[in-house]
Please model this.
Amino acid sequence: MASESSTIPTSVHPSGKQIDWVRALIYVILIVGALASALPFLYMIMTSFKTYGDIINNNFWPWPPFGDEALQWQNYPDAINNVGFDKAWQVPLVVRYFANSIIVTVLGVVGILLTSIFAAYALAQMNLPGKNIIFILILATLMIPPDLTLVPKVVMMFNFGWYNAYPALIIPFLASVFSIFLLRQFFMQIPKDLFDAALIDGAGHLRYLFTIVLPLSKPAVVTTALLNFIWSWDSFKWPLLVTRDSNMRVVAVGLQQFMASEGGTKVQLLMAFATLVVVPVLVFYFITQKYFKEGVITTGIKG
Amino acid sequence: MKKLFLLTALVVLVVALAACAAPTPEPTKAPAPAPTTAPATAPTKAPEPTKAPEPTKPAPTAVKINNPPKTPEEVDAIDLTGKKVTVTYWHNRPQKDQDMLQSMLDEFNKTNPYGITAKAEIGGASYNDVYNKVNAAIQAGAPPDISVAYQNQAAFYRNQGAVIDLNPFIKSKKYGLSEADLKDYFQTFLASDANPQFKGEVLGFPTQRSMDVMYVNLDMLKKVGYDKIPTDWKTWEEAACKASDPANKKYGWAFRHDASNFATLVFSRGGRILAEDGSAYVFNSQAGIDATSMIQRMIANKCAVEIPTSERYGEQNRFGAGEILFVFASSSGLPFYNEAVSKGAKFTWDIAMPPNTGKPAINLYGASISVYKTTPEKELAAWLVIKFLGQKEQTTRWAIQTGYLPVRQSAKADVIAAFKKDKSWGPVADSYAKMFDWAQYAMVESPVAGYDPVRALIDKDVMSKVLADPKADVKALLDAAVKQANAILKENAPK
Amino acid sequence: MTSQVTPVPLSATRWRAPSARRWRRVQEIGLGYLLLAPALIVLVVFDFFPIFFGAFISTCDWKPAAAIGAETVLERWLGPCVKFVGFDNYVRAFNDPQMWQSLLVTATYALISIPIQLGLALFFAYLLFQNVRGKEIFRVVFFLPYITSSVASAAVWSFLYNPDKGLINNFLITIGVMNPEKVWKWLGEPTGIFTLMARGTGVTLPEWLGGPSLALLAVIFYTTWVFLGYDMTLFLAGLGNIPGELYDAAKVDGASGWKLFRHITFPLLSPTTFFILIITVIGIFKAFNHIYVMTQGGPGNATTTTSIYIFQQLYQYNRYGYSAALSFILFIVILALTIIQNRVAGSRVVYD
Model:
């Protein structure tokens, strides 16, 4: 049985001094790598507390001990107000962007969970004629690059009358082949005996699904939810194509548009806006850490 | 089972609610021409046989209104009473300007006798952005009623039949502009909107204008030994080279390599981008060669620094930090440069006309407002909104807020006074006043459809090449580019 | 698969039992398809049907505005096909140098990204595998770039790369590596890196030898930053799955260090490597958000991948038919690549 972190032997003799050297080097490299991963975030947050003058004059650290400026907390309300105002809902546009993103992402993730859990269960645990053909067809969808269906889907939005409306942002994405695949993998690991036991207790498929299968599959379900949340929160190209009014934008589009206008020069405001965009996903990630790690690993290995 | 059903029902319900709640703009249907009848007049009396016969006026017939209206009479016949028409205007200014624009339009909504309601919206972050969005909206059948559009963009829309000719509206007796009114407009501003590609159709009307002016760091200029802003290219180049100190990130000229900057250089050397009759591109003239060679030379000598597109507003931010002596940029950037300098290195600066080789010329910027083809009533209402925004009071307020030039000569005095009163402008207020004198030298790049690909061509195949290679053959590059540009011109000619 | 046999009381007559079982079976099949239906409906309508619709669009001069106000459904859907042009869009694509250039850029992107990304990820996974303390913290930090919105992180990187005020250039100048007179323009530099390096020594290289543009490399560096943590996590898991006994046995035979890696670790890691390779290639062909935010495909065509080009044709030029044709060409390319990938790499993947 493989251990979680077996020590791969190095070619160095177990002499105390030399191993310390190597281990120290390992730590140094890892820390440098971690810093490189985190640095852009630190830069983003730092810049969001600077003034416009700091941006122009290229002041790296305008606060104590090298300067005497205060942290510019008002960049955050300023960013929210400068981006614009939505007359329809009578809120700052940024608030509307977040509301749109939350609506689209939450409904999308819930929708994907429902359709994927059901489909994955049917494919994994039920004995259906033609099941394998359907599964192969679904897998084939993975082969379809998103660019291939881009133009026709946009035209379909025109034709359905969904252009510049929420359905265009939500409905085409209510099913996710990746999620079906991931969940099916997990469901298939659940022994059939459990179902037989449930059957004897008088439970049908659905009761079995909700009371036994799902609780056992928490890592997979959480991973599916988190990954789809991340992807949906990040969606940019599609909303850019199918929305017209600024108050129908999602946060990713709103951020890019702000960067193309005032945010391009008032970088401190742009960074404040970017920080606001990044934080919700980070919070969700830290909460679901435990399950997520298991889920990613499962997808990777059983690939 | 019940839980499942409830959950699914909940999701479906919410999705349905969201679908219904979101306002879907009604796709504009193909409008049917609405014929209106003019009131019949009594027949004239027959003249007495002994007198010379008086010419009789023909009885007015019922006027058929086309969409778009083709004659001023048709426009006169449009009736807006009780129609409660709404007009949506897409522009590209930030929120502050949007608020002011809407407050002006609110006044219009309160005072106009036709029941028209006008609404301003930020259509995009830049002119280009608005252009992309409008195009997509046209395809989806949901364009705004009016929007900002450059002359060549309006021509592109016109090619698709999406915008209308405003001549009948301008000349309409009931709703148009009087001779006096038209004369009050700066004539070069009006002239730029008559499109040569479409036989002089007016595809947009101005409510603002700006120019590609030269921003100058006066303190730096003095430090390198010049008391006056150079007015010829030779002195200008010398000054720029003297001011350059690349080791300290200082350069004489921060050059954003886009076609508009190129055009400024060409105009000021007596050249043109497009022939006056719109028949061919002519930027490979000697003026073009000299302009391009200067760019090539100054970059190689490090007298100028290139601002890549990825360095957004780089010329503005570097200028504000006191690193640059000269920048060519739109005068509509005046408030932004003012802020950058006052928060940045806080030096004395000014704007000036670009140097020239004898004949002054300046690149005219600032889009006009185009009216999209919807219904005759909406089009008329849209025209009235544009007319309102061009009136003296509105164009004055807009100019003071944004740094654009007002479009009427009668507004000149008030705007200049306001700039002078605002001490934060310093000497720039005086130069702003000078821009009105420069207006007579204003030239437009190319108002024809398909100019955007040509801009990209000039940028990629000429500018970028000479920036990368100090030995590139300027004449060959320009000739090749003109050849391609003329092919694009033909491809986009009206069918 | 165990059959779903419910125990039937012996008292039931024989003719009743089969139909009860069959009815239950029918119920089960019905339920099964009912469960599959929502996902299948969405997939068919929004993934399968568009393929055929897209193929149709690619054979037309497509102008959606032409069908506005159409009365019948047929008019609405077929109306925008203002003119049937058959394969013209495809012929045009083949003759379009920008299309080929975009494929070249995409290929360059992939060929450079993959070794760097996978190599670095494996390297860090290997390090992290050495019983390092705080391993979880490291993993979480490395993972942060992957979960952040690509638009947000691309916006931040745009300013890190700013030639005048960006952190990267400021840092390089401060430590003396970069000459302030010759700052690198990163995302704004369309010149190939070989040309740039040759310039430093006074040599002028012909354009075709110029190599990938610095702008593209800057984008690649960003992509590596994003995916390092994700790939590393997968490699870590793969490493953990290699049985410790194999190493013990090999050590007994006297093998050590690099030999162990080459003959045990790397081969047994191949399923993971293969999987990461596939998703990386898929990701590169789909790559859009960060390129659009950082360079919009520029400067010039330096970072215009085929995905960006397809988008530009649709959004900026309103060429629906042409954009659709381009997407089919891209699809063929991806398909060919996948088949080749499966043949070449698939045969090298070792399963235990």
Remarks:
- The beta strands of chain C are 60-62, 81-84.
